[in-house]
Amino acid sequence: MYVVYAGGDDTFILGAYNEVFEFSYILRKSFEKYVCSNKNITFSAGIGLFSYKYSVVKCAYYTEQFLDKAKIYTRKKEELPQKDSVCLFDEIFTWNEFEKILEIRNLCINIYEKSENRAFLQKILNSTKGFKAILSNINTKKKIQIVKVHRLAYYLRELKNTKSQVSDIVERLVKTYEKMVVDSILSKSNNVCNIMVIPAAVRWAELNTKKVEENDE
User: Fold this and answer.
1) DSSP calls for 55-118
2) What is the pTM of this model?
3) List of residues 6+ apart from 76 with CB closer than 8 A
4) 46-54 average pLDDT score
5) Domain extents for the chain?
6) How far apart (Å, rounded) are the C-alpha atoms in residues 27 and 34?
């Protein structure tokens, strides 16, 4: 990784996505420890994914746009932006949600390593295509069709019929998936309530496993 700029309360870092994604989380945890978990001192980040051919100037410009989105995002029941968020894949997450993304990504990679099959990742993404509509209905207080929500977990249930050694991991992934959906709809969790955590985690896992396959060739 390369620190292009660091001054005041801002920094701009370039690097391979697999390093930058995890470094962002580590840096934030270190910052939290440094300020003694003071909730009044926030840490926001914008993470961009670009081709290696993209100019640094353009990378900086768009990444700053992502950072601004993270800073001004207002969640439900908030009158003013609380900041302390991260923009990843053009979605805004709290750092607790980012930690959940990391957890789900690790589960997906673990399943891939034991099954040597990436097809299930696309199945999970297919099952999350209705998430944006669900979020929209929640925010506008429209009626949510619970039956359709339960169907979103269907593809994951199929994974339980794979090799026995991945069964336990799949079950953990299924339970995490279903809990995320229910908690997001019912707003049960104050820390993790953005249902887009799941597709973000799967996209991250896709990037990681694709890199592994390319290195093996």
Assistant:
1) -HHHHHHHHHHHHHHHHH---TT-SS----EEEETTEEEEHHHHHHHHHHHHHHHHHHHHH---
2) 0.83
3) 139, 187
4) 93
5) 1-88, 95-217
6) 10
